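WARN retry 2 of 3 for item q-0093 after timeout on previous attempt; input resubmitted unchanged.
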Amino acid sequence: MGKVKDFLKKKDIVISARRYGVDAMGAMAQGLFCSLLIGTIINTIGTQFGLPFLNTIGGYGVKMSGPAMAIAIGYALKCPPLVLFSLAAVGLSANELGGAGGPLAVLIIAIIAAELGKLVSKETKVDIIVTPLVTIFSGVGLSALIAPPVGAAAGWVGNLIMWATEQQPFIMGILVSALVGIALTLPISSAAICHALGLTGLAGGAALAGCCANMVGFAILSFRENRWGGLISQGLGTSMLQMGNIVRNPKIWIPAIATSMITGPIATVLFRLEMNGPAVASGMGTCGLVGPIGVYTGWLNDIAAGSRTAISAMDWAALVLVCFILPAVICWAVGLICRRIGWIKEGDLKLEN
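OK item q-0093 returned
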């Protein structure tokens, strides 16, 4: 047993909740930001300003989300070069086969493939063949076995959201907003879930509210720790960056979830805010402002179809309140209470540089 421990130590394989649940997950969120999310932002700018070359650039960024997440995980696990570079193929396969659960599949499979690659790294005279072979073969093989069930589990979350949309507007607003907001921050794709379910209309508005509650909420809640960089990376990027901190202290999620449960019914009952743009925008929140732009696109579609005559001042007020102002104010207030009673301590929301 001692020899096994010594061997694992030599290979820097540390089987712990911190290594996999904090370090790896935090790095994965950064990989997602540097591919899917920044690509989406560039793509949105290109679409809105009629600059097709930006759509091309953004499209490449989006396509590389699987490899980027896997390589980021490998970096966090301190993989040697041959293992690290081989994880690109692993991330691609896991993300594509995982569907709506792609990011979660990448997290699980990349960790296993990375550790297996580290086990054989530099143990043979043909390391340049053996290490990539073991890493890619194990990772892609596991993708075929594990990724589809992970995607199915994410689909179950989607079915739960669909059930929630069938409830009356007030309850639906609470449930959909909370569930999609949670999905946005978890390592699964809320955008893919909303797209697969065709989540538009009032349900889409509730989903947007939940996403904004998490993104804007965490951005404001953690401003004292992360300042302007954190505000932008979370408010216009992703609240998934906080997953490592959530694993350390789940209570830091309470303000964002509570906020989503408040802004959801405000969107559905008070403002009747509908997402009649693309369903995928319902699960994007303020990432690249895709969510609010989706609502605006829906207004234009409604005007073209004759179901709406114009965009009113109340429409704009509802959009700004639900997407930006209310999440910021409510999450900050609930967070202040959580800090005062000791549920959130100084540094709990600090992002890794």
